[in-house]
Structure formats: C-alpha cells, structure tokens
Amino acid sequence: MIAMVVGFAGMVVASRFTVDSAIELVAGSRVPPFVIGMTVLAIGTDLPEIANSIVSSWADHGDVNVGDSVGSAATQITLVLGLLPFFVGTIVVTARGVAGAGWFAVVGLAAVLLVTSDDWFGRSDSLLLIGIWVAGSWITYRLIRQPHQLSLPEERSPRGRLMVRTLLGLGAVGAAAMIALWGLVELAEEWNAPEFAMSFFLAAIGTSLPELAFNITAVRRGQIEMAIGDLFGSSFADATLSVAIGPLLFPVAVTSKEIAPATIAALVALAAVTILITRIREHEWRTGLLLLVGYGGFFLVLL
After folding, report:
1. pLDDT averaged per 10 residues, the chain (length 303)
2. 92 secondary structure, DSSP code
3. Is 270 within 8 Å of 168 (Cβ atoms)?
4. Domain assignment of residue 85, given as a range
C-alpha cells in the first residue's frame, strides 16, 4: 500500500513538472488550445499510464497494462469530468473537436477489444492502435482550424533547459511507475484479486490524478478548451497510444475474459458522455453527478 501511494504520488508530481515544461515548449505556436490539450497535454498527463504500460509489459503483467489504460479512459471521462463542476463551478462547454476526440476514443476501445480477444497483445496490434491515434489526432486538428493560440509566457526558459527538464521528468515518472507497479502486483496477490480489476480501479485512479489536478488549474485560469481537450484527448490516448506502447516493445499475454466486459462498459460510457457533452451548453453539478453515477456503474460490471 505504501509503495502504491508513494509511486502514484511520485508520478503525479513528476508528471506536473514535465507537463509545465511541455506547455512552455509549445507556447506561442499556432496550434489551437483544444488540440494542444488533446495531444501535447494529453500525452503529458498520460505519462503515468505510458510508463505503467512499458513497465508492466516488460514485467509480463499484460492485464495491469490494459486494466490501467482502459480504466483511465473510463475514469477520466466519468469520474474526473464529473468532479470538475464540484471544484470549479459551472463550465460553459464551447470546445470544438470534442465529438471527434470522443468518437475516436470509442473506436480505440473497440480496437482494444478486438486485438485482445485472442489473449495476446502483440506488435501488430500495437501498431494498429497507434495508427488510430495518429489518424484521429490529425483529422481532429484539420477539422478545428481555430485561429487563436496559446500565448507566450512573459519569461521563457531556454529551449535546451526545457528539453532537459522534460527528459528528467519523464525519467522520474518511469521510476515512480516501477514502484507503484510492484505495490499493485503484491497487493493483488495478497488480496487474491485479479490484476485487471485492481488496475482498472486503483491504478487508473492513481494515474488519473494528473488530469484532475491539471484541469482544475486550467479551468480556473480560463483555459476551458484546453481542459476539455486534455480530458477527451487523454481518454483517446489511453484507449490507443498508452495501452499500445508497452506491447509494441514487449509483446505480452492478456486475459480477454476479464478485459472484454470492462472494455465494453468503458466504450458505452465514452459514447454516452460524448453525446451528452456535445449536446449541453453548460456542464454543472447535475451533469457532474450523472457522470459520477456512471463511474459507479463500472463497479457493478466488474463485480
């Protein structure tokens, strides 16, 4: 338990440090805030999932990888998005591109369901998912064509220093992920619980903390589009890029009979939330409560 807490806390702190450096690197570019949130920041706040994917696949715990990534995709779009109005108040939903990111995430989860159906997660499976992420990100970027951009900070660090800080942050995230993985596997054995279920809930909540912390700060600073883009982009990245990175390097066995029900539930939840967010004008405590109830439904599915 202590190893899990220390590992996840370390990933949160190191991810925030790395994301801040990445934001400064892309500041002043012509990329729209939603796209920055969907790609650069989504990958940045997904560093715990990416690190966990690599470490767990290398350690031959494929269910931990898939459970964390699929669980994170579901957690961010239900629990984290549902909690936001309770922390920052009513959010006016104006971000374009939400529908594209949401539906591409649904496609990604459907692909995860397909590639894990034979109890094996190989390199060709990983390339398919990474291809979906690249295509979805490019299409969403082309569809938005938003004129304004992220402004430059008043004092900007040299690019070389920013790149070094980013690399150091990535290394710290990876080290913290190894500690958290050890604690999670040991705890699953102690409780005689499936690694997938433990990862879907405990690991996913731990690795989703960077999204919650970042998006609360972003909304309070008026960067609503960036926050929404990060949430939907993170779910998209979890369903494709994050879950595929580990098996691309280290192909691994998985347990399809445990993965399928939760992945189908996550897929349905993502589709429902995408429809909801694109149809409402304001995201407030009532819609937030609805999403929290949806997250609670995952417990029933896995039980």
Report:
1. 81 70 61 62 76 91 93 92 89 74 93 96 97 89 59 56 72 73 78 85 78 74 75 90 95 94 93 90 90 90 77
2. E
3. no
4. 2-147+161-302
In contact, 36 and 230? CB cutoff 8 Å: no
For 4, residues 6+ apart whose C-beta sits below 8 A from its C-beta are 180, 183, 184, 187, 202, 206
Strand pairing class (120-121; 282-283)? unpaired
User: For the domain that residue 205 is a member of, what is the CATH number?
Assistant: 1.20.1420.30
Q: Report whether 109 contacts 70 (CB < 8 A).
A: yes
H/E stretch holding 275 reads helix 256-279
Count of structural domains within the chain: 1
Residues in the chain: 303
Distance of CA 130 to the CA centre of its chain: 14
Q: Note whether residue 152 is domain-resident.
A: no
Lookup result for tokens 């429809």: 275
Amino acid at 123: R
pTM above 0.85, yes or no: no
Report the C-alpha gap between 24 and 167 in whole angstroms. Answer: 14
Tokens for 274, please give them.
């995408």
Is residue 156 domain-resident?
A: no
Whether residue 59 is contained in a domain is answered as yes
